[in-house]
Amino acid sequence: MDRQKLLMIFGGAFAAAALLTWFLYSQTVAPKREKMVTVLAASADLPAGTRMQKVHLKKISIAQSTAPRATVSEEGLALDRALLYPVTQNEPILSTRLSSVTGADGIASLIEPGKRGVSVSVADSASAGGLIQPRAHVDVLFTKTGSMAEAVTSTVLEDVIVLSIGRNVEAAGAVAATAPAGATAAPSTGNRSVTLLVTPEQARVLELAKNQGKISLSLRNPKDSGKSDEVLSTTSETIDPGLMLRTAKARAMATGRMPPRAFMNVPNLKDDKAWAALVGEDPSQQRPPVAVRPAVEKKEPPKPRAVIDVFRGDKHVQETFQD
Questions:
Q1: For residue 139, what are the β-bridge partners?
Q2: pTM
């Protein structure tokens, strides 16, 4: 074998080894470069109900293989649409997390089909001291105003979800976290508008209750789904058991009518037999006589022996003299 053929063989073997080495390296060691796509993401933590603006959006690049199918890549497809769910910073914006209709749907897109949002105005003292926040579960209490004898409090709705407090659909902590640096929370006025998520029938009950008396909310555990089969009511008799009896007696005495049977059966405590029957004694037994103190004769003061009229100018004084 001549020298030229030997060099050709060694050259071909070296080239084959180099190609094989490069192939194995590219498949096992060298980093893979995937195709990237540009999508829209949240520029900050955004609560549900936020209407998307340019300041809320930014563009990021993610691998095409890991990008969700519902990602939004154009600003025009996201602007002026409301978020149905909260998103965190740098999280891609999905079309399924935006309201389906652009324009003035806003919070209405958060209402489930078959439900209604009804607002009531309650004070902090009537809403668990202001602890009630959006998505909380509450009971609605109705108090009929009037005199003490006519007052009654009833639980008209149970396990109702709070949709929003004012225009906030997120808890105060979440809203404060997304507020700009240096911003201060608005002071509580003590009277807030609470929007409740109810059925159409419950909406009618709630509307009637808030126009006929006072509405208050009681906070409940969201895991407590127990409900009463009947309307629970509390009257003034619970806190003042004798109120109705005293009121009826006062009215009977004021009108001069025959008092009710309840008053006719009241025993006469001055009667010995009635008292014995009341305390459980035998009326046939003679009660021990009560010792009576002898009357003390009052001595009249001695009469004056002389009365002298004394005149000092326009003043007249009588002076008495005794032995």
A1: 218
A2: 0.47
